[in-house]
Amino acid sequence: MRQVPNIAGVLLLGFFALFPLVYSGGNYDYVMHVLITAFFYAILASSWSMLAGYAGQFSFGHMAFMGIGAYGTALFCHYFYITSEPTGICTEFAFFGNYFVIKNAIGVTSTTLDQDCLAQAMAVWGDSVSVRPMPVLMGIILGTMAGGLSGLLVGLLVLRLRAAYLALFTLGFSEIVKAVISAEIDITRGQAGLELPALFENGVSLMGTTFDKTDKIPPYYIMLGLLVLCLALLAWLARSRFGLFVRALREDQDAAAALGVNTTRYKVYVFTITTAMAAAAGAVQAHYVQIVTPNLMFLLQMSLVVAMAVIGGVENFVAAALGAIFLQILLELLRTSFTIGGVEVDMTVWRLVFFGILLMITLRFFRNGLIAPIIAYFYRSGMAEETVAKRKTGAPAS
Questions:
Q1: So what's the pLDDT on residue 277?
Q2: Helices 263-289 and 28-49, interaxial angle, to 10°?
Q3: For residue 35, what pLDDT is reported?
Q4: Which residues contact 317 (CB under 8 A, 6 or more apart)?
Q5: Using CB atoms within 10 A as the burial measure, which of 15, 141, 144, 247 is most buried?
Q6: Reading across the β-sheet that carries 131-133, which strands appear in turn?
Q7: The pairing of beta strand 343-345 with beta strand 98-102
Q8: Is the four-CA dihedral 334, 337, 338, 344 of positive or negative sign?
Q9: If we measure between CA atoms, which residue out of 108, 143, 393, 149 comes closest to residue 271?
Q10: What is the predicted pLDDT for the residue at 359?
Q11: According to the model, what pLDDT value does residue 346 have?
C-alpha cells in the first residue's frame, strides 16, 4: 500500500504528459492555457509550501520574487542585442567579433522609435548588418538568478527575525518592488508593461511536428517540465539532512540551535532556493504570455498562492502543487454563469465567494489541507503491519 502514492504520481504525470496529444475536445487552446497557468501556480505554491510548511518561514514576498524573475528576463530581452557592426550611438562592447549592444530607454512618452539608438542605427544600416536579440534561455537563466540573488539579500537582512516580522518585512518588500517598477516608466514602461519574445520565437520542432510561436504544446511541456524539476529538487532536499534541519527550525528553532544547527544559515538557504524557483516560474510565464506588468505582484495574487497551498496541504509541497492545479481549474470552471428560478447568477463575481468559502471550511475542519491527508493515508497504510512483521523476523523497522 505504501507504494500507491508513487504509482499514483507516475500515473498522474503520465496523464499530464499525454493530455495534449490525446485531448480532442473544443476550446483546445483555452484548456491548454488553463493547464499551463495551473502548472505556473503549482510551482509557486509548492515552493512557498517548502518555505512556510517545512521551514516555518511565513513570507508575503513570493510574488515579488516571481516578478523580479519576470522583469529580469523582460529587461534583458528588451534592451540587449548582438550586432555584427558597432552602432556608434548605443552603449556597446566588443563580443567575440560581434558587439553587445544596450539600447537606451525611451519610456512610453515617445510616439515613435526615433529616440531608440538601435533603431536609428538600423535605419542607416538597412539589411547590411546582422542584428540578433539575446537568447530567451539566457534571459530566463538571468531572471532566475536575479530572483535567487534578491532572495539571498533579503534573507541575509531579515531572517534573523521571527514570527510576524518576516511576514511584515516581505509584505513591505513586495510593495516596494511593485512601486519601483510602476514608477520607473522610462525603463519598465510602468503600467503599460514590457513586451517579451515568445519562448520559441521562430517556432520549434517537437515529436516530428513543427510548432509556431503561438502553439500551446511547447510552453505546456516547458512549464510541466519545470514543475517536475522543482518538485524533484524539493523532494530531494526534504529527504536529505537539509530537510531534517529546516523541519527542526519549524518545530523548535531554539532547540535546533542548541543542538548545533546554524538556524540563520539554513533559513537563508531555503529562502534563496524557493525564491529562485518562484523567479524561474515568473520568467517562463512572462515569455509565455509575452508581456509583464506590475499587476503580477498584487497582494491578491500572493493571497491566491497561499490559499492554494493551504487548501492542498501547506506541509506537503506535492499536495500544495496539486491543490494549485485543482483550484486553478475549479476557478475557471466556476466562470460559467447559470440561472436559478429565473435569476441569473453571475459567476464571474460569485466564484471568488465560493473560493473563500472553500478556504474557510478547509481552515476550520481540514487544517492539513484537502489533499495532504489523502497522500499521508496511503503512505502510512500498512506501516503498522509492516513494523510488526519486521519485529517478528528481527529485521529493523523502516
A1: 96
A2: 170
A3: 94
A4: 46, 47, 49, 50, 53, 54, 231, 234, 235, 238
A5: 144
A6: 91-95, 98-102, 80-83, 131-133
A7: unpaired
A8: positive
A9: 149
A10: 84
A11: 66
| Sequence-separated (6 or more) residues with CB below 8 Å from residue 392 | none
Angle at 17 between CA 292 and CA 275, to 5 degrees: 40
As a whole number of angstroms, the distance between CA 27 and CA 347 comes to 20
What is the tens place of the pLDDT at every residue in 177-194?
Answer: 999 999 888 888 888 888
Model pTM? 0.89
pLDDT at 189: 86
Query: Which value, to the nearest 10 degrees, does the dihedral of the CA atoms of residues 202, 204, 209, 210 take?
Result: 0
Contacts of 150 (CB under 8 A, 6+ apart): 65, 68, 275, 279
CA-wise closest residue to 33 among 45, 20, 43: 20
Q: Decide if 197 contacts 211 (C-beta within 8 A).
A: no
Q: What is the DSSP letter of 343?
A: E
Quote the cell numbers at residue 392.
Answer: 517478528
The closest of 35, 33, 41 to 16, measured between CA atoms, is 35
Write the DSSP assignment of 277-316 as a string of letters: HHHHHHHHHHHHHTEE-GGGG-HHHHHHHHHHHHHH-TT-
CA distance 167 to 58: 6
C-alpha gyration radius of the chain: 24
* pLDDT < 50 stretches in the chain: 1
pLDDT at 177: 92
Distance (Å, rounded) from C-alpha 301 to C-alpha 289?
16
Q: Which of 264, 327, 326, 218 is nearest to 57 (CA)?
A: 264
Query: Is residue 90 within 8 Å of 118, Cβ to Cβ?
Result: yes
Residue 222: predicted pLDDT: 93
The Cα 153–Cα 147 span in angstroms is: 10
The values of phi and psi at residue 95, to 5°, are -145, 90
Instruction: Provide the greatest CA pair distance for the chain.
Output: 86
